[in-house]
Design brief:
Largest sheet: none
Helix content: 55-70%
Strand content: under 5%
Shape: rod-shaped
Order of helices and strands: HHHHHHHHHH
Length: 290
């Protein structure tokens, strides 16, 4: 049902309740006059009974706790039955239908008359007690919901970046063959060049407990556009870029930053280049000169 239909339904309900209250108002006013209420009290008496019924109905719709909802339903049922009994008595006693209703008996038998008078006079007192209890439950329910929302709100925005938990790193198994080497090279290059976002680190750290969904093979369009370098191409590029370097400058960290490769490959290139420099710097044997 759309919003317009819901609005019409609520308006129709309000109209039916208003007309039903007007019909019940006449009987409850006459009963209140019969038990000794003055003109003002008899006029307000129907609002005490039927008004609490409406309040209990609203509380039943608002409250979510099972015990509180059951209590509101019991109050609604009790006051509905009480209003029905008083309307029934008004229809049975002809003395209550006069133009100027005065104090009179609600039943010929004394025990029944006493019970009816007790019922009619106790409803205002019950409205004060049950109405206050229902309103307190509704207000307490609202305050608890607000507190839950405030407690569940994220508070990581006030934490500094060093205090954030570090994400767990998943070890990558060693590849086999040229295809595996190229794949590790691509992963290392992406990890070295990608900027670190503190917000992304926070999200990854928070989602470590959730099971990861299998995504399958990465499509070609989503892969890096950087060309893959073979071992020979990487060695040739290293020789070209480090040709003017001294032996002391041939460090794994310097090679890794210059070539943008993994630390393992940088150490392998350092050892190879130093070995080549050492072989070139060795003097020729004396027998070879003769």
């Amino acid at each position: 049902m759309n919003r317009f239909g819901k609005t019409l339904l609520v308006l129709a309900l309000v109209g039916v309740v208003a007309m039903a209250f007007r019909v019940s108002w006449n009987a409850l006013r006459d009963v209140a006059t019969a038990v000794g209420a003055d003109t003002t009290g008899a006029t307000l008496y129907p609002f005490v009974v039927d008004g609490l019924m409406a309040l209990a109905l609203v509380a039943t719709l608002v409250l979510t706790d099972r015990a509180d909802k059951k209590f509101a339903l019991r109050v609604l049922a009790a006051y509905t039955v009480a209003s029905l009994v008083l309307n029934f008595v008004h229809g049975l006693v002809p003395e209550l239908h006069g133009e100027a209703v005065d104090w009179t008996r609600l039943a010929d038998w004394d025990p029944v008359n006493w019970l009816l008078v007790l019922l009619a006079t106790s409803l205002p007192v019950g409205s004060i007690y049950f109405g206050s209890d229902l309103v307190a439950k509704v207000l307490h329910h609202r305050s608890i919901d607000s507190a839950d929302v405030e407690e569940s709100a994220p508070i990581d925005t006030e934490r500094s970046t060093p205090d954030l938990p570090a994400p767990a790193l998943t070890p990558v198994p060693a590849p086999v063959g040229q295809e595996g080497a190229d794949r590790v090279e691509q992963v290392d290059s992406q990890a070295e060049t990608a900027p670190v976002d503190p917000v992304a680190v926070r999200v990854v750290a928070a989602d470590q407990s959730a099971p990861r969904r299998v995504t399958g093979r990465v499509p070609e369009a989503a892969r890096s556009a950087r060309p893959r370098r073979t071992a020979n191409e990487l060695m040739a590029e290293a020789r070209q870029l480090t040709e003017s370097w001294s032996v002391e400058q041939l460090t794994a960290e310097g090679i890794r930053k210059t070539l943008r490769t993994s630390p393992e490959k940088a150490r392998m290139l350092r050892d190879t280049l130093r070995a080549e420099r050492a072989a070139t710097a060795e003097p020729e044997p004396l027998g070879a000169a003769s």
